[in-house]
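Our preliminary data section would be incomplete without showing what the modeling component actually yields. Below, a chain of 583 amino acids is followed by its predicted structure, encoded as tokens that our downstream tools consume directly.
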Amino acid sequence: MALSRGLVLPSPSTMQGAAQPSIRQLGVAAPCRSRRSLVCRAASGVKEVTLLDYGAGNVRSIRNAIKHCGWTIKDVKSAADITSADKLIFPGVGAFGAAMESLEQQGYTQALKEYIKADRSFFGICLGMQLLFDGSEENGGCEGLGLIPGQVTHFDKSKGLPVPHIGWNDLIQKHPSTLLSTVGDRRVYFVHSYHATPSPENAEWVLATADYGGEFVAVVQRGNAYATQFHPEKSGAAGLDVLRSFLEPEVVAARPAPEATSNGRPRGLAKRVIACLDVRANDNGDLVVTKGDQYDVRETASTGEVRNLGKPVELAGRYFDEGADEVTFLNITGFRDFPLGDLPMLEVLRQASKGVFVPLTVGGGIREFTDGSGKHYSALQVAAEYFRSGADKVSIGSDAVYAAEEYLASGGKKAGGTAIEQISRVYGAQAVVVSIDPLRVYVAAPEDTEHLTVKTSKPGPNGEQYCWWQCTVMGGREGRDVDAVQLAKAVEDLGAGEILLNCIDNDGAGQGFDIELVDAVSSAVTIPVIASSGAGTPEHFSEVFQKTKAAAALAAGIFHRREVPITAVKEHLNSSGIPARTA
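Predicted structure:
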């Protein structure tokens, strides 16, 4: 499906190859079933909602959320399907210009405008809300649908806040509405670099705002038309309640308002606690979640088997239940011989997204490749299939280092063809994470290296007082002549929207994050940084948030082995005055 001029993404029908891997090989237990209070019980009779999927981003999650609420889906195939819809959901993901172009090419624009103007039942999500405005400054300036007065503009980086705005934030409701009647004081999940600003001209539309260096439009409503900047399908129980309020307002209106649960908790954007699952094939060919010590995932016993800490889909469901703000899958096995449509991680995402309603990130193998049959795939094609299988973000590792090396060697010129640039241009910077695997290098004095050094509180083996962090590729096996700060700044300029900052030295040690590394990188860029490697106690999370600009912190082994519950981390953060999502 064409998303921007000259660019055609693969459709699911073109991705069919050999037989899918078996459930046992995928490490999948049973598909995630209804969880806790998330069950949306269907009444008798068929209930159908029409979905406008114009071809970009992760719409599998909204499909799963709708089905979870007991509704069936009719896909828009023509403008007539929009006109005839009883209820229409428009999930927008990606770049403003590409989305408007796709709507125009498929002949949907006028039908969509007439549908909303006629006060029909409509729900837009994220970019599906932004497109309702007059236009956006994204992509050099684009016209929108022109239904809501105002322009969509980029967040102001000069205010010192990381952009994109990623994470769980509070809503500031302006007037009562059935749509938000069940949310209470629970946070919802945002991920965007551009926003609409409330004004007297659009005041009749603004139902709720959120604050991120100033108020921005979070929810709009006029009559039966609703739209949210946040993603209800990624906002856990609160988000599913919002979706159900749109689908069945008469049922929701009869229910009592939820009780407040904040209990004086810190307000505003929460620091995210992310559960990470390193996934690889064991010696029997089964996909398992593993965890290494300084990236070595094999047991030290005589068997030398791959350390097995559980099944990917089963663990992802557990972490959703336990309150993880995001779940990250890092594929540390290369499945280069599989046709793209049959990559095992795609099926893991499809299964996990059925019952995990928080953001899913996948890393490993997000690069161009040629499969065993000789068919070539671009990095954009690979990413497209991951998104359509349930991923919200893709994480790029070694290829990002190579791209940064070329960028630095050229004096900061952008080639335009790197995986980072291709994917962010179509899906937006917020969809691209760069994973950095650095190794500490000690020097006696700053002039001993051309790389950025810091004076360290942990002297080297020979008493060295300074260090820098060397980036590695190939899972930490090969060092490159680029440091972590250089890499982070380069990939930000190339279009990455987030940094996953690992630390080989601290990996698996349980002694805390490398505060000096996290501080150096998070102070050098304006995109969010996720601290990773070394967490062993709840106090390690509060330390990294208090001493650095990290927006999130990730852990694996301590969660897999139940040494530290995610709830304990969240409770500790809130009690320390650090905003954390607890409901």
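The CA atoms of residues 28 and 569 lie 27 Å apart. The two ends are 38 Å apart (CA to CA). Preliminary results of this kind motivate Aim 1 of the renewal.
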